[in-house]
Amino acid sequence: MSRTQMLQIQFNDVALGYEKKRVVEGLSLTIHSGDYLGVIGENGVGKSTFIKTLLGLIPPVSGQIQWGGRRCPSGVGYLPQMTAASRNFPAVVKEIVLSGRLGHMGYRPFYSGKDRQLAQNAMEQVGIAGLEKQPFGRLSGGQQQRVLLARALCAASDLLVLDEPVSGLDSESRGAFYTLVKQLNTTLGLSIIMVSHDITAVVQQTTHILHLDRFPRFYGSREDYVKSPVGQAYLAASKRAV
Ligand SMILES: Nc1ncnc2c1ncn2[C@@H]1O[C@H](COP(=O)(O)OP(=O)(O)OP(=O)(O)O)[C@@H](O)[C@H]1O
């Protein structure tokens, strides 16, 4: 059974950026429940800026973003890009997963039974239930990404946002991670937004694609993207680069 509410995120002629610096202009799109959106584009075009704006961390420079009639996001789990420092984070797996509940605690000083149950469910869903007492820094890269995915899952009722989630992983761990995320999308009905440079995976895994540039180059279904001139040119260029 789907655990999602009806999600609808609408960008109406939005400009993204900082103070007076416009990074992306004229962005209009609608993300629906169950969509799996891949966000692609060259380095520095504004993919992280899009995510920061979507999460409400920075305001749009102009235009409007609506969350199903609301003006700010909720029910979102976020898996940020991994840094070298975060790979050695000094905590055990269960503590890290539970910390996904911090945003739901209000003034409560301790985790509730419900928080612990959600953390347990999330660890089972991503296949790390047996690792709960392990120090995070001793896990493989693939296991660490699953821990962070479980943490994000604890916070997510509607939407998971993944920023370059497989960077630094070997090809086997990358494949397993993509399979897991796709399962969360299809079996739980969670909407997914994934920023990635891995265009091959993006066209295999997602339902929709946003190809960013100063003015967005494409937004629509994955099927239409691979047939479009912009999609064909990007796919051909990425094959030549391999
Ligand atoms: N806090 C900031 N203040 C001002 N400009 C910023 C800030 N963060 C990023 N930028 C600029 O905004 C532009 C878009 O950056 P952003 O990080 O969103 O690109 P990106 O597509 O995610 O890049 P990459 O693929 O390299 O991760 C860049 O020109 C960057 O220098």
From TrEMBL:
Domain ABC transporter: 9-239
SMART domains xref list: AAA (SM00382)
InterPro entries: AAA+_ATPase, ABC_transporter-like_ATP-bd, ABC_transporter-like_CS, Metal_Ion_Import_ABC, P-loop_NTPase
Any one GO molecular-function label of the UniProt entry: ATP hydrolysis activity
One Pfam family this sequence matches: ABC_tran
PANTHER family: METAL TRANSPORT SYSTEM ATP-BINDING PROTEIN TM_0124-RELATED (PTHR42734:SF17)
Stated name of the protein: Zinc transport system ATP-binding protein
Organism: Eubacterium aggregans
Organismal lineage: Bacteria, Bacillati, Bacillota, Clostridia, Eubacteriales
